[in-house]
Amino acid sequence: MWWSLLAAYAGEVTWYALPNVAFDSDEGLGGGARFEIAKLEQGADPYIWGVAVQAYFSTLGYQQAIISVDHTRVGKARITGQALWRQWKNDGYWGIGNGPLRERAFVGDFAADDPRRKRYRYTLQSPYAHVAVRYPVSPRVDVFGAVSVKWSRVEPWAGSVLEEQRPYGMEGGWTAPTTVGVLYDTRQPEIAPRTGAFLEASARYAPSFGGEAGGWFGPMFSARGFGSVGPVTFAGRVMGEWLFGTVPFYEQVHWGGLIPIAGFGGAQTLRGLRFGRFRGPGKAIANGELRWVALRHKLFGRPLAWELTPYVDVGTVWGSGDSATARPRGLPVHPGAGGGLRLILDETFVGRVDFAGAEDPVLEPDGSVTREWTTGFYLVFGHPF
Length: 385
What we know:
This protein is mainly beta. The chain has a single domain (6-381), classed as Porin, CATH 2.40.160.50. Helices cover 1% and strands 58% of the residues. It is built from 1 helix and 25 strands. The strands form 3 sheets. The chain has a 20-stranded antiparallel β-sheet that branches. A 3-stranded mixed β-sheet has the order 7-23-24, with no helix packed on it. It has a two-stranded antiparallel ribbon with strand order 17-18. β17 (254-255) and β18 form a beta hairpin. The chain is globular and about 65 Å long. The two termini are 20 Å apart.
């Protein structure tokens, strides 16, 4: 996962800087650099403050530069901020709704100059800035507000499904989604929990500033639970969101909440399924993981845990109405399963390697459907939840 690792500690400040090589089935092989630093203190979970900076570029055209700041003690409030430059030169679009199928003629590994490779691809630029303020109203309950400023630009590829269908959102543009919500948090510890729960209920609204980026709103709910027996932690998450109004096609695979999550499919939600494979105004996922700490030792005087993790994921989308480009055949639920390895340094920094398979149906020339499974491989930072 990493070519080299440099870690140093000065008092209660812990940090690392590393050049990293990573791989994501949707983004390809990539490289860049990442730096994280955190101020630790006895009784502070996970830290007093933390900062992360990363630049990353992949062979399939994903580009990202990010700076994240999280301060847990600004008076009684906790303030989190992110600024990101993001561009997907090879993002995926197969249609809208729970039923789009891949056509057999466009299934396979094709050369870079083969036009079949472009059938389900397009380019999306979507830089944004996000600030969230979290304030306690009781020892376990917080309220929060968040605002993002986002700009999107869509470029369909010639001969692609997106160019043919041209769903709402092709013009892109500016919007500023605003979110308010309430949290119930008893996780211990916060970043690599072994016990407790994290419940979130929120709603967001994105105004329209012209173009096709705003004019939508909707509620979101997420519940995570953790319980441990010896070195084994059982972790689960259910999450759902339903957006109303004029929802751009690219926004239908992004989640709101305190910290936004990207994807229906991909490394953070339904692993093994391609990022954005299914999309709709309503979406829900469920994840279950068994996290077994197989080895513990010291690295530069700080605790390092090696965690083995089998898991299952399942998800569905709904609410597309007349904008759906295909109707589902059979049970409209998409399953996935896999296993992974997690490296947890100082209960603060998490590196993750996941391998998964998921069902991804294919339309045959005779009109029949083959229930094929695709695979995903991810080298990323942080637990999925």
